[in-house]
Write a structure and sequence with these properties.
There is one protein chain. This protein has about 300 residues and is of the alpha/beta class. The protein has nine helices and 14 strands. The strands form four sheets. Strands 3-2-1-4-11 form a five-stranded mixed beta sheet, with helices on both faces. Strands 5, 6, 7, 10 and 12 form a five-stranded mixed beta sheet that branches. It has a two-stranded antiparallel ribbon with strand order 8-9. The chain is globular.
Length: about 300
C-alpha cells in the first residue's frame, strides 16, 4: 500500500502572507494527491483564491470567519475522509517540507511493526525563529517534559506539534477528531495524549526534518527560550493549559502538576517579554481564570 497510499494535506491559514504560504504550498502540492486549504480569514483570503488558480490539486474551503484551528482542521479532515484518503497530513501555513517528505515518512511508517497501533508519525522540525535549530522530540518522564535530540531513527514520543503530522484516517474513528472547544493551542498535544490513552503510539522520525516557525518571535528570559505571540494568543495558551491540567481524562497526576507549573511559568515569561507588559499579564490572568472555571471556545474581545 505504501506506493499507492492516497494522502491528502490539510492546511489551515489565517490572514496568510504570500511568501510564507506560497513556500508551504509549493513544497507539498506535488507530494500529495490533494491539498485542502481551510481558510479562517474573515471574509475569505484573496491570496488563497490566487493560489487556487495556480495549483491544480488545491481546494480552498472558505470558512469566512475565524473558527479556530481545531474546527478548520476537522473540516479538512472530514473532507479528506469523504474523498477516500488513506492518510491526512496536517500543516500550518508557515511550514516548509523537503521534496521527498511524504515518500520518506510513509516508508518509515510502513517499516514499523504493529502499524495498526500507530496513531501518527511526525518529523523532527527546525525552528525558523531559532536560526534553524532542530528541536527534537518530547517525552514525559519523572515529572518533567524531556526534549530528546536523536540524530536518526524512529522513536516513541509523548506528543508533537501538528505541522507535519501524518495520520492514518482509520485512526480518527477510534481516537476522534480535534478538540474544537480549545479553539487555539494545545489541540495537537491533547489529541496525542488521547491517542496514547487509547493504546496508540506517537512516532517521531529523526531522519526527516521540516522547517517551521514557532511563535511570532523568539525571545530568551534567563536560560529559557519563549516563542512570543500576541496577548490574545497567550490567553489561549494559558487557558487551555490550565483547563487540560484540571480536566483532561487522558493524563496522569504528574502531568497535571507539570502543566499547572507551566501555566504559572509562562504567565511570568509572557508578561515580561510581551509588550505592553500589563496587557499581556492581564490576558494571562484571564486565561488562568477561564481555565479554572472551564470557559472555552473563542474569546469575546468586545
Amino acid at each position: 500500500m505504501e506506493n499507492d497510499a492516497k494522502i491528502f494535506a490539510v492546511i489551515v491559514c489565517y490572514f496568510p502572507e504570500r511568501e510564507i504560504l506560497g513556500k508551504t504550498l509549493e513544497s507539498l502540492s506535488s507530494q500529495v494527491k490533494k491539498v485542502i486549504l481551510c481558510d479562517n480569514t474573515p471574509g475569505g483570503s484573496e491570496l488563497a483564491r490566487k493560489f487556487k488558480q495556480k495549483i491544480s490539486n488545491l481546494e480552498v474551503i472558505y470558512l469566512l470567519k475565524n473558527t479556530g484551528i481545531a474546527v478548520a482542521q476537522n473540516v479538512g479532515i472530514k473532507k479528506a475522509i469523504e474523498e477516500g484518503a488513506d492518510f491526512v497530513l496536517l500543516s500550518d501555513e508557515d511550514t516548509v517540507y523537503p521534496e521527498n517528505y511524504v515518500e520518506e515518512m510513509l516508508k518509515a511508517y510502513f517499516s514499523l511493526p504493529e502499524k495498526e497501533k500507530i496513531a501518527v508519525i511526525v518529523p523532527n522540525y527546525a525552528d525558523i525563529n531559532r536560526m534553524g535549530e532542530r528541536r527534537g522530540f518530547i517525552i514525559f518522564k519523572n515529572l518533567l517534559w524531556k526534549r530528546i535530540l536523536p540524530e536518526k531513527g524512529l522513536h516513541e514520543i509523548t506528543q508533537a506539534i501538528a505541522s507535519g503530522m501524518i495520520i492514518p484516517t482509520k485512526v480518527f474513528k477510534d481516537v476522534g477528531l480535534m478538540y474544537e472547544d480549545l479553539f487555539l493551542d494545545w489541540i495537537d498535544l491533547e489529541w496525542c495524549w488521547r491517542a496514547r490513552a487509547k493504546g496508540y503510539k506517537i512516532i517521531g522520525n529523526a531522519d526527516v526534518v521540516i522547517y517551521h516557525r514557532l511563535g511570532d518571535v523568539g525571545k530568551k528570559l534567563g536560560k529559557r527560550f519563549y516563542p512570543v505571540h500576541s496577548e490574545i494568543r497567550h490567553y489561549y495558551i494559558i487557558r487551555n493549559c490550565v483547563h487540560l491540567a484540571l480536566r483532561s481524562p487522558y493524563i496522569n497526576f504528574l502531568m497535571r502538576l507539570n502543566l499547572l507549573y507551566k501555566s504559572i511559568r509562562n504567565t511570568i515569561g509572557y508578561s515580561i517579554l510581551g509588550t505592553p507588559h500589563l496587557k499581556h499579564f492581564f490576558y494571562c490572568l484571564k486565561g488562568i481564570f477561564h481555565g479554572v472555571i472551564g470557559r472555552l471556545g473563542p474569546l469575546e474581545t468586545k
